[in-house]
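User: Some background: our group keeps a shared notebook of sequences we're curious about, and every so often someone picks one and asks for a predicted structure to add to the entry. Today it's my turn. The entry only has the sequence so far, pasted here. Could you supply the structure so I can complete it?
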Amino acid sequence: MDILEKWDFAPDIQIARVDKFDEPAYTELINETLGHHHPFLMWRENLTDAQRAKIKALQERYKNDYQLRLAVLHKGELVGAQHSFQSTVTDVMMAMTTVRPEFRGRGIYTTLARKVLSETKEAGFQAVTSKHQMTNNPILIAKLKLGFKIYGTEVHAVHGTLLNMVYHHNDLMEKSLRFRAGELFLFNEEEIYEYYGGPLP
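Assistant: Of course. Here's the predicted structure to add to the notebook entry:
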């Protein structure tokens, strides 16, 4: 794990941008903090060798896509992690984020999320999306406070029932999402013609 940048969060805690997470520390962290509360479908363990080879080849194609990995370090030990990756040309998925229980309640998650937002905005992305367990209230509340909006739900074969959220760096996209969700007076008639090419039905 090479540290690319590092910021002091507290006297004994740093948040670092890294090229990759050390193993097996990262997998152990994920299993210990998330595995028991939100069981995942262990689909990779049930692949054939041929299927594994094909997935590995697919992964090679994504090596040059945008990746953001943030490690939370306590005296050099990995106690939290955040991984975001490019999901479309203009969007980033804020994916796996976790912090060990004894380090929660200190604002680490919010700090990680804000860092993701600032880094992705600087890189030119238009939106950051995320998916969450529908009962994970602390994280949902934290995301809403940061300005994320709920835009849907899905039933995922691996992760279960999820709530989909989005943060738009593009103000027009943010306004349009709210407009299409029913906030009718965000645009006047002239703006509707300009942005949507004519009157809406």
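Suggested note for the entry: The beta strands are 3-10, 13-18, 67-74, 77-86, 91-99, 127-133, 149-156, 160-168. Helices lie at 25-35, 49-61, 108-123, 137-146, 171-180, 189-196.
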